[in-house]
Description:
The chain is mostly beta strands and 360 residues long. The protein has helices at 82-90, 130-137, 204-207, and strands spanning 10-11, 22-26, 31-35, 40-44, 49-54, 59-66, 71-78, 100-106, 116-117, 124-129, 139-141, 147-149, 154-163, 175-182, 193-199, 209-210, 220-221, 226-231, 236-245, 250-256, 268-272, 278-281, 288-291, 299-301, 306-308, 318-320, 325-334, 337-347, 353-355. Strands 6, 7, 8, 10, 16 and 17 form a six-stranded mixed beta sheet that branches. A six-stranded mixed beta sheet has the order 13-14-15-18-23-22.
Amino acid sequence: MEKSITLSPIYTGAWGRCHIQGIAVDTKKGYIYYSFTTKLIKATLDGKIVGTLDGLAGHLGCIAFNESDGCVYGSLEYKNDIIGRDILNIIGSERTFDDAFYVARFDVDKITESDMTADGSDIMSAVCLYEVEHDYKWKGVDTDGKPLDHKYGCSGIDGLTFAPLPGKSPADGMYLYVAYGIYNDVNRKDNDYQVILCYDMAEWKKHSLPLSQNNMHKSGFENPLHKFFVYTGNTEWGVQNLEYDKHTNSLFMAVYKGFKKVFPNYSLFSVDMSVQPETKELKGIDERAEILTLSQKGLYDEKTGTYGWHFPLGSTGLFSFGNGEWLICRHYRTAEGQCGEIEHYVWDEKTPFVKKRSSD
């Protein structure tokens, strides 16, 4: 955003039974995008709908706009757990899919009218993430020998953003970050980390193909460039929205708060991207890994050593302009369907966001 402006609340419109998952903004062209699980909506910043892309039978989650190619990217998963089956039930589909996890790329300049088809079109391509599939299908034991499914509690993927490598600046290059969904389980010891995969976009074209839901390709990344861990305590469904903020040089993670009583169960966390990862032993897991550092901002819980905020919004949409100003989604529903209202906020370390006033 070239200069500070104050935006009126943006109403997304009502889009059926699936709630809004994330937002992305093209500040140069003045478009905002909404992910509503099975569809992608394109609108102007005053809320006028430009076009819609529909027909997804999987879970389109958090989305992000990539300034380098002008496309929107989003986490996209097909699975046979409660989430996957519920989506198919909502859209009235009797399809079955093998468990698979993708990052989808949308050529949003081609979204020009309503009810366009995502499935098999030249608007959407995708790469498969084998690391996620491996951890989702994993079967093993915990440190006490108790049988477990889903490594680290992996339920798939959701949060997604573009950010520099830890300890580097955006001028050194931006990388794709994808965060795991994590099953809520207060009895496990190995699910107290947020898991974030990092990929080099220079490798994207090598693996990207159009995605047809009638014949799902498995072209993709065998391994991430980095696999990062952030100690937060278990959360319900992991990182819902992941957003890099240039102003604070931080990765923000909006979650549905967890239920383990030993943790403060914050709903918003921030990772300090000025600090390089430290390789050390994971708590509750017999494994060494690259661990990222939480920003020393907000509330501090001395017992667990975690920082965060009890901020009620963000899990259905976060966007940073990079200058201390944000758009944040408030999700709600009406008789016409699931909705969202996107409001303009300003960074405030303690709160951590306050609504922007016209006089600001």
